[in-house]
Amino acid sequence: MSESSSLQIQGIASTYSYRIGDINTMLSEYLTEDMNLVIVVDENTNKHCLPKLDIPFSHLVVELPEGPEHKSLASCQYIWQQLAGQKYGRDSLFINLGGGQITDLGGFAASVFKRGCPFIHVPTTLLGAVDATIGGKTGIDFASIKNGIGIFADPKAVCFDPSFLETLQPDQVRDGKVEMIKHGLIHSEEHIQDVLSYDLATPPLGKVVLDSVNIKHHFVKKDMMDNGLRRCLNFGHTFGHAIESYFLAESNPISHGCAIAWGIQLELAYSALHYKQTVAGIEDAVDFLQSGFPPIPHFAFEELMHHMRDDKKNRAQKILGVVLSEIAEAHFDVEYEVGQIKKIWEDV
After folding, report:
1. Of 347, 331, 327, whose CA–CA distance to 339 is shortest?
2. Is 264 in contact with 192 (CB distance < 8 Å)?
3. Vertex 321: Cα angle to 315 and 325 (nearest 5)
4. What CA–CA distance (Å, rounded) separates 239 from 234?
5. CATH 3.40.390.30 fits 180-346, yes or no
6. CA distances from residue 212 to 6, 53, 58, 133, 330 in whole angstroms, order as listed
7. Prior bond of 68 cis (ω within 30°)
8. Which of 66, 91, 162, 271 is most deeply packed, by most CB within 10 A?
């Protein structure tokens, strides 16, 4: 596969392109000199990624602080304040240049400003490229609840230039691989091996990314509003989001990839307890998750339960999650029993 590739994504209200290639070639198809353009960045992407964009006409750059604690209402308010009273109408185009935090937040800020502006996601991290920019979910964290406020909104396009990955630290690449391994666990054992052998130094960089995007799209297109099958994509997130929310509340935020790496390990253990047998064929994935990340932290069980009960996926006051009976056999909306959660947590 060449480094110029595309996939049509079925969105909530429209079909849009997920494209891989040279960023300026791709963006040139959407930009005109007479448009009002807003580019949302964080401190890192402003420094390392924005210079790669060749936009020969006036535009507004809104820089936000870097870090998960800034995926917040305050950051959205800052964006809106830069636009208020200026020339920016509903026809303004947002470009969200960054990882999952910027695309989630920027998409939300655009989709509610003046009741909705179009936006293009330009993911600059592996995690953003394979997960956050597909499926139409936008949002911010609120009161230590992950993605506690948000809406579904389709981007105009997703444009991914693999050269942005050259700006990443090794731990950021590792974080992206976690979501890709999750895709393999719920859909394709072959994809797990492809991800584990994925090397940024060996082109084509786009193939394994597009494979992961295809897997996520497989679930999303059958359940756009997250009412059923799409929930399989939450594997690793019942424990993972609770752990991430705990550290966010403690003003000691951790990366999303790290939280989900721990969450996948715990939910594989929960699956084994649920089915009374270990999921076969997961050894390589578990080895990566254990060797690539610190040991799973241990804090009070009551704190874990507090954040699990706040999860937006729950229904009728039941903690709902995903279990695997085997690789590519995921079962969603399984009630996680408190006694089994406690046993898993005590074994950490």
Report:
1. 347
2. no
3. 140
4. 10
5. no
6. 13, 26, 36, 12, 16
7. no
8. 271
End-to-end CA separation in angstroms for the chain: 42
Any idea which residue has 């719920």 for tokens? 186
Q: How far is CA 229 from the centre of its chain?
A: 18
Amino acid at 27: L
CA atoms of 184 and 211, how far apart (whole Å) = 10
Torsions phi, psi for 208 (to 5 deg): -70, -30
Residue 24: closest CA among 207, 196, 159, 224: 159
| Residue 70 tokens, joined | 């800034």
- The domain limits of the chain are 5-168, 180-346
Per CATH, the number for 5-168 is 3.40.50.1970
Task: Give the side-chain half-sphere CA count within 13 A for 36.
Answer: 11
Tens of pLDDT along the chain (348 residues)? 345 789 999 999 999 999 999 999 999 999 999 999 999 999 999 999 999 999 999 999 999 999 999 999 999 999 999 999 898 999 999 999 999 999 999 999 999 999 999 999 999 999 999 999 999 999 999 998 999 999 999 999 999 999 999 989 999 999 999 999 999 999 999 999 999 998 876 656 678 999 999 999 999 999 999 999 999 999 999 999 999 999 999 999 999 999 999 999 999 999 999 999 999 999 999 999 999 999 999 999 999 999 999 998 899 999 999 999 999 999 999 999 999 999 999 998
Q: How many other C-beta atoms can be found within 10 angstroms of the C-beta atom of residue 54?
A: 10
The distance of Cα 220 from the centroid of its chain, to the nearest Å, equals: 13
Q: Which of 136, 144, 181, 163 is nearest to 293 (CA)?
A: 181
Distance CA 322, CA 279 (A): 13
Give the C-alpha separation, 239 to 191, whole Å. Answer: 23
Cα–Cα dist 50/43, whole Å: 10
